[in-house]
Design a protein that fits this description.
The structure is a homodimer.
Chain A lengths: L10 E2 L3 E4 L9 E9 L13 E5 L11 E4 L3 E4 L3 E4 L7 E2 L20 H9 L12 E7 L3 E2 L10 E2 L2 H9 L5 E8 L3 H11 L4 E5 L10 H7 L3 E5 L3 E2 L5 E5 L2 E6 L3 H19 L10 E5 L3 E2 L5 E11 L2 E6 L8 H4 L4 E5 L5 E2 L4 E6 L12
Parallel strand pairs in A: 3-4, 9-12, 9-13, 10-11, 13-17, 15-20, 18-21
Antiparallel strand pairs in A: 1-8, 2-4, 2-5, 3-7, 6-7, 14-16, 16-17, 18-24, 19-23, 20-21, 20-22, 22-24
Chain lengths: 369, 369
Amino acid sequence: VSRVDSPPFNKAAMDGFAERSPDVAELPATLALVGDSFAGGWPEFRVGPGQAARITTGSPVPEGADTVVMVEHTEELEGGRVRVLKLSGSNICPRGEDMRRGETVARAGEFLSPLGVGVAASAGHERLAVFRRPRVALLCTGTEVVEPGRPVARGQIYNSNGPMLSALLGPLAEEFRYLGVVGDEPGRLREAIRRGLQADLFVISGGVSVGQRDLVPPTLEELGVRRVFHRCAIKPGKPTYFGVRDGAAAFGMPGNPLSCFVVFQVLVRPAIRRLMGLRCAEPAFRDGVMDESFGNKPGRRNFLPCTVRAREGVCHLRRTRSHGSADITGARSADALLSLPADCSGVEKGETVRFLWSGPHFPPFSPGG
Amino acid sequence: VSRVDSPPFNKAAMDGFAERSPDVAELPATLALVGDSFAGGWPEFRVGPGQAARITTGSPVPEGADTVVMVEHTEELEGGRVRVLKLSGSNICPRGEDMRRGETVARAGEFLSPLGVGVAASAGHERLAVFRRPRVALLCTGTEVVEPGRPVARGQIYNSNGPMLSALLGPLAEEFRYLGVVGDEPGRLREAIRRGLQADLFVISGGVSVGQRDLVPPTLEELGVRRVFHRCAIKPGKPTYFGVRDGAAAFGMPGNPLSCFVVFQVLVRPAIRRLMGLRCAEPAFRDGVMDESFGNKPGRRNFLPCTVRAREGVCHLRRTRSHGSADITGARSADALLSLPADCSGVEKGETVRFLWSGPHFPPFSPGG
């Protein structure tokens, strides 16, 4: 709630001279100067009939005056007088025009943008109570996964989910902790999961399929996590796990890097926004036009990385090269994820489709939905 | 440049059984199991005619095998045999399909997105040489300006540019230093400006008009800054100053908060992107349709805060309430800045216009332009 009127006084919008409008009803008019009003000061005088005051942009308009004439439309004369040659509006911003004392200027659950911060400051607030961003922990699993920079043995691959998820999660977290890679030794996995569950949001990459070695869901549940879902009708991202414990949330992400990226955009980012206290947490899907025809296997809601190019104000989409759910090399040039409904058996060129911005330059959320 | 092929071996895309395709040309077919291939290991055996190996998703396909049949399409039999009932493609991702050893996977001057980080990691890179973000300093000037939370005397206003510019600049800076508010006492101003010039980018709010008390440009130049421009043909933002010294850059911003915001979006953010080493630094203006008619005074390129709503894939714009270049309360709901050319005398409803995303959720830069 604003503590002040903004502007807090009738304010000059121009450098010039303040006077009474009846005195400049006929032009040219010559007026006697009775004082100056500069920014930061307060004019302790009154402008009477036939009088004017020198004034700078942003300064308080002296009592009695109701118009400011631009300096360019005047001539200063000897003997403390000014001749007014031309008018162009009153050039006064009235007290309280932008914001009134007592007016609500920010609400809980809104994102506080830089302009919102500026508004809260002009309202007199030095501090605002806000929701804390979540503390986030990340763990990577997989006996085949080796951190980049180390030697890889035959059958092993470099860890790309760890660095990618760190880049995605880090900027959204109050505190971000990367717990490294663990293999499938149950004791070590259990210990790492116990540490990760201290965060508000715990993200685990890999180990969530239903195979023999996929120990993440049972270990989470042994440690008190309540399963909300395991397996999800999206493609890629089917093995995704989600559970909660004492207000903390845990995501088990697919090990395939592109699946992991899609699940981040579609499920994890909205969860983080909810944990941040934002009312508007859901991904904002937008309309575009597909620039190519292709078939689709119905079954699950399908997300395909696409480039987006605007032509005459309309977004046109094309799929990026893809060799499947491990191929982030192809998906890297994507601006968005095309979203095909579960019953879609194909898209025709020119058809209207729904998409979610997913490129680094297009966060998918807008206050306007 | 990639240090490895990705995938580094022929990789199973499914849980199932690996075998030779001639052996499953006629179905059902019964094969003898000769081993297992699990993720993280390496199959030290060969699949010969009439043989198969148990295999999990992401694991290396054993030598000799050229197809993987999904576990759902098989029956395991007694005596270490498996019956294959159905085929659905080869389910193998061939070595090097996504990325080849020696291939260029990132270039100087590109923004390294989270997916780009993931790609660099799969290419085996633990560290990449990147441009440092600039160190940024911010100074606010004005005798009338008081920090929020302190008492305001008559004629004074709360500092909104300081908090707003901190929120805009902070996340883009390697190191951000806020130098507070100084009045117009020349010695203190000079000292503050000297400190600010130690940063890579120095932003000063206020004191750049051509009035008697506008001491920022002369003080910058006394301290060795070379003027690049002072006054700019944009509205708002006319008094903007820009100068350089020894690779450091200084912006003198208008004191009016909305002007300050516009100049940040149109000039300062692109400068920061250039300082970050990004090839694509210019603001990306996009096409939209104006949803109302209004007149415009020609003269300078005019930027007006607007809301943007997508309808059938087209962006529709409306101006937000504005009482002029101090009114950030009205501009706060804006998603974008409408850009009118200098000779524009008005816009008709339905006319195509150019705009720049400026809301917190729509950074205005896209790799695709």
